[in-house]
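Throughout our pipeline, every protein is held as a single compact record rather than as scattered files. Nothing more is needed to write down the fold, since each code stands for a local backbone conformation. For reference, a complete record is included directly beneath this paragraph.
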Amino acid sequence: MTIDLRKPIENIVNRIPEKHCAQLGRMSSAWAFFEYCVNVIIWRMAEISYKRGACLTAQFPNMERRFDALAALVAQECEDKTFVKKIHDFAEETIHDFAEETHKLSLERNRLVHDLWELNPESGPEKKLIFGYKEINGAKIEHLLISIYEHIGAFELLAKDCYDAMRVSGKKL
């Protein structure tokens, strides 16, 4: 017996509303932009070209490892003993806290991006398969998109703090 895999795909993919796909696309693009911003800061702080930097950060399996790298870059720059504790605390606490918030967002984003979506024509709302169905509507996707935009804004402030911390140590970026 052969299984026609096209049939289930047609039944699922063709019933997903364009508006829903557009919401997922905007949310995915926002997350990709956030990852790029984090990568650029790492490349600049490591003083390597974007091409070489992309080769390195592409090997990091998740955002947590990127923030570990960022914290390490900030901490290793400070050789002046008067600033070591301040810089170390900043790297360990501020960057770590931000990484935890990023992880929470990434879990939400991963579920929305990687789980199977299906529209129930009888009930209407979008749902996703998680060993059963769970209702997810467009408002949840928009809320996550706004959270990602806000997180990008918070990262801009964190990046400025990282640059400031490195400048205190005499580093010119």
